Amino acid sequence: MTATLIPAGSTVGALQQRPLLDAVDNRILLGHALGLSRVGLITQSERVLTGDEAQRLSCLLERRLRGEPVAYIVGQREFFGLPFAVSDAVLIPRPDTEVLVELALERLPPGGRVLDMGTGSGAIAVALAHTRPDAVVTALDVSSAALAVARRNASANGVNITFMASDWFSALGTEKFDLIVSNPPYIASGDRHLAEGDLRFEPSSALTDHADGLSALRSIVAGAARHLAPKAWLLMEHGYDQAAAVRQLLAEANFNQSQSWRDLADIERVSGARHG
């Protein structure tokens, strides 16, 4: 493929009727290249692309054909009905993680203090703060680049969050919370999925613990009790085959009411339990 993949003189309507990619990807990239909304692509179907526009769209399509995620190409992904800026410094927010947000909202008391560990783009923390403006939200990450993205997303979505640079609990002191949530790295080192699809382009340190996939989850469970108020919940996203192992970790750490919840694909995706 070359940067002349789309010839000048092509119309918006023709490019939508005979897409080179999946229709959704095609629409997103076409709209991004031309600065048009979904409605604009419909109302301007007869618009003819200039040479510069055709070249710009061709470059975007080439990047996608090489496998680069659409979210990184356009720099944005929607999560929990909110827009989030993304870059290769953070994971792309996924619909499955919305289950974690919904569970957290059900367990967050009025005016509750919630901690999001390994916040990445800030998707979980921002979604919680936006839905529950009464909540006191803290989010931490070890990556300064990720925290910069998260702060940008908090500002863009008009929410107030305290961000901290921390390797898990190291910077928290004695602070306690009414809820702790996390979507930590949980893919085992050497897992074939790391070399497939969008994961090839996402930051490996946010995907894998470079071990058995449970080391980050072990660290969170081991340290959570010192930072949870009585009866507070710990909720963690994990891999498709890790639910039983995570429940065992919670039981061994003397958490109560340990259970798992399924995602949109009917896979046990989130496990959690109550402290004390």
Automatic annotation (TrEMBL):
Domain Methyltransferase small per the UniProt entry, residue ranges: 99-191
Example of a GO biological process term: methylation
Pfam families assigned: MTS (PF05175), PrmC_N (PF17827)
Annotated binding of S-adenosyl-L-methionine, by residue: G118, T119, G120, S121, G122, D141, W168, N183
Group of enzyme by EC: transferase
Entry-linked SUPFAM superfamilies: S-adenosyl-L-methionine-dependent methyltransferases
GO MF assignments: nucleic acid binding; peptide chain release factor N(5)-glutamine methyltransferase activity
Domain of life: Bacteria
Keywords: Methyltransferase, S-adenosyl-L-methionine, Transferase
Binding site for substrate: N183, P184, P185, Y186
Function (record text): Methylates the class 1 translation termination release factors RF1/PrfA and RF2/PrfB on the glutamine residue of the universally conserved GGQ motif.
The protein's name in its UniProt record: Release factor glutamine methyltransferase
Species this chain originates from: Janthinobacterium psychrotolerans
Name of encoding gene: prmC
